[in-house]
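Section 5: illustrative case.
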């Protein structure tokens, strides 16, 4: 099998065999749904679990950010974190301390408590892997947002830009290859700082949109890039959609890196971008809410009846929405004899 997410049809088959015996589970496992939601009476418990497998640098910090992002997409607030840290035999005590410091610093900045986890040295790993479970809560039970909440006719908006995370990893960990392909130091330094500026956290953007009361669905862009995130929204909502490639924001350093490595930015690891759907009439209000916190937003498409299918409009015209069976970063690494896992 190729590295990356399981094929959606296989994942759907596996999930369809699961029995949820607890009626308090409001949102269980499903293609495109990143968080479980459990009814705790006076509030909802939001649960998310995700590993960091592509990045080698700051993996502990990454794990906190990525898991918190998904909790925020439900309208919930991240509260508690449990990291699982798997270390290769070659790891040093310095490596371990750095990972734990990154986890601690990220949680402290978010007001998240570390309440448990697991550590071990594991044979066969080329580098540390951190998997995290983030728990959050939502006080207003009636305002839960899910990936599958998009409605027919909704406008699709996106924040900040695509391929931010992928470009940052490439600039930080594969700079020699990029320099050999003609990229200058300033471009690489700027892209390397993408982790902090504009950043891969979407917490503030998700909170601003949630507070408008207008969003029907929110989903962050991760492995497989914007295209995969759009496909996940469509699958979870059982809808079709059309997206306009020329409306998708792409920062100049992302464009330069993707062009140099012949990568499609629409299929590149994209934490830092948030997708939301809402009624077309609510888009101006949503974009104003983002602008007030210094986040840019763009309208890039529309949800449609499922019979209309999935479409992308680009310079070549209208075509079926492409599919990325693996992230463009994984393809780059494998073609050069590296393993992303």
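Designed sequence:
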């Amino acid at each position: 099998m190729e590295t990356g997410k399981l094929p959606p049809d296989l994942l759907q088959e596996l999930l369809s065999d699961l029995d949820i015996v607890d009626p308090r589970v409001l949102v269980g496992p499903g293609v495109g749904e990143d968080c479980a939601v459990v009814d705790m009476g006076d509030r909802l418990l939001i649960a998310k679990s995700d590993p960091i497998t592509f990045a080698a640098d700051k993996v502990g910090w990454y794990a906190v950010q990525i898991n918190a992002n998904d909790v925020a997409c439900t309208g919930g607030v991240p509260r508690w974190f449990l990291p699982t840290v798997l270390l290769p035999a070659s790891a040093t005590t310095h490596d371990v301390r750095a990972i734990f410091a990154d986890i601690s610093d990220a949680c402290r900045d978010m007001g998240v408590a570390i309440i448990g986890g697991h550590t071990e040295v594991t044979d066969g790993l080329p580098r540390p892997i951190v998997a995290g479970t983030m728990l959050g809560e939502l006080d207003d039970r009636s305002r839960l947002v899910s990936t599958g909440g998009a409605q027919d006719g909704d406008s699709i908006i996106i924040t900040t830009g695509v391929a931010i995370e992928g470009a940052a990893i490439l600039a930080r960990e594969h700079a020699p290859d990029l320099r050999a392909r003609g990229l200058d130091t300033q471009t690489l330094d700027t892209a390397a700082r993408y982790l902090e500026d504009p950043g891969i956290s979407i917490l503030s953007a998700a909170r601003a949109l949630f507070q408008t009361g207008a969003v029907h669905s929110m989903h962050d862009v991760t492995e497989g890039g914007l295209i995969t995130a759009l496909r996940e929204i469509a699958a979870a909502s059982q809808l079709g959609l059309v997206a306009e490639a020329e409306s998708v924001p792409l920062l100049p350093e992302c464009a330069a890196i993707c062009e140099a490595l012949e990568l499609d930015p629409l299929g590149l690891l994209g934490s830092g971008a948030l997708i939301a759907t809402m009624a077309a009439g609510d888009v101006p209000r949503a974009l104003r809410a983002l602008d007030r916190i210094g986040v840019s937003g763009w309208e890039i498409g529309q949800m449609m009846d499922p019979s209309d299918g999935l479409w992308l409009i680009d310079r070549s015209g209208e075509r079926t929405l492409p599919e990325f069976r693996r992230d463009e970063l994984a393809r780059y690494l494998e073609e050069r004899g590296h393993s992303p896992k």
